[in-house]
Amino acid sequence: xxxxxxxxxxxxxxxxxxxxxxxxxxxxxxxxxxxxxxxxxxxxxxxxxxxxxxxxxxxxxxxxxxxxxxxxxxxxxxxxxxxxxxxxxxxxxxxxxxxxxxxxxxxxxxxxxxxxxxxxxxxxxxxxxxxxxxxxxxxxxxxxxxxxxxxxxxxxxxxxxxxxxxxxxxxxxxxxxxxxxxxxxxxxxxxxxxxxxxxxx
Length: 201
Hints:
It is built from seven helices and eight strands; from the N terminus they run αββββαβααβαββαα. By secondary structure, it is α+β, with helices and mostly antiparallel strands. The model has no long low-confidence stretch (mean pLDDT 95).
C-alpha cells in the first residue's frame, strides 16, 4: 500500500473511532500493513482523535522501529501476531468500546441476535484479562487469530479486516451488538439454520 495514502487513511479512521466514542484519549491502537515487511501503527500515549500523518510509526515484522518519532503502541506485538497468522489481514483496530468492555464482565457476546452480527463478526471469543502489552495477552489473542473480532476481558476489543474500512466496520458492529445485548438481556438468537445460511453467504 502507498505509504502516504495509508497514513492519511489511518489518521482518518482514528478520528472516526474517536468521534464515534469507540476509543477515548490515548486508549487503543490501530495499524495497517504496508507490505510483507512493514506495518504502520499508532504511537503510544497520544490521543487517537488528534493524530496527524507524521505521528504514525513504521515497524518491521519483528517490532523494530523503521521510522517515526516516539514509541509505537505497547500492543504492537499483538498486531504483528495477527498479521503473521493471517495473510489476508491488512488492517487491525484495537479499541476500548464501553459496551464491549462492560459485556466482558458479565457474559459472552451473542453476535447472532441480528443478521449483520453473523455476517460481519461470526463467532466472537472473549479472552481473559492479561496486562496490556504483555506476552500473555499477545498469546491469548493469537490463539484466536482466525476470528474476525475478539473481546478482551476488562480491556477492549480487536477487529481485523482486509483493509481499514473493513476492520472499522467490524468494530462499529461489535459495539452495536454489545449495546444491543446489554439492552435486551436474555433473549433467543436467530435460528441455527438461519445462522448457517448467513455464514454461507
